[in-house]
Amino acid sequence: MRIYPAIDIKDGKCVRLFKGQFDKITVYGDDPAEMAAKWVRLGGEYIHVVDLDGALKGHGVNADAIKRICSAVNVPVQTGGGIRTMEDIRAKLDCGIERVIIGTKAVSDADFVKRAVDKYGERIVIGIDAKDGMVAVEGWEKTSDFRAVEFAKKMTDLGVKTIVYTDIATDGTLGGPNTAAMKEMAESVNADVIASGGVGNIDHVRALVPCGVEGVIIGKALYTNNIDPAEAIKVGKGL
Known about the structure:
- Helix 1 runs parallel beside helix 3.
- Strand 5 (77-80), helix 4 and strand 6 (99-102) form a beta-alpha-beta unit.
- It contains 11 helices and 12 strands.
- It is α/β, with parallel strands linked by helices.
- The protein is 38% helix and 29% strand.
- The protein has an 8-stranded parallel barrel, surrounded by 7 helices.
- It is globular, with a radius of gyration of 16 Å.
- The chain has a single domain, classed as TIM Barrel (Alpha-Beta Barrel).
């Protein structure tokens, strides 16, 4: 199980939200690239970046910060937030990104996902953010009519190979991941599932290992020093 240190960018700064609420925000650093380099020095093998401004505004906002992150690290970077067009995907890849995460647009336009996967293959990832098992969209501000697992199956039928699955109720709380939901998702779809939300200590990381997820995104727990990245990586590798 791979560990993905998370970097959420808002107004060019490195921040964390509480349960996806934009009025409950904590700034952890002015330089996202410096933060990314720190996580790689501590053993991070893949960096997960979210353009929060992009998620809200529906278009990429923090391209310069994302470019600097890619230049600062020698590991792959994946990013999401505001990906709505093929041009948005190309722009992110041109920043040096390895994988682009499509969220809101995937819910409203399956044909767009198909075109993206046909052109870019495994570099396209679908981000599924769930509230009470239903897919949320537009920076988590609205809930769709799709059940998360059924929507994931629809995406894998289009050729999607990786899904980032976030349980919004646990995100930023440090209270523990929704292991039942993560296990259900991992067992239900023919794709790699990356768990996101609620990881607050090393036991939470350990609890995800038997769920069958490919990886886990860790954010706030790294910034608050609740989790040592090196220890998390060892647990993920079964050491």
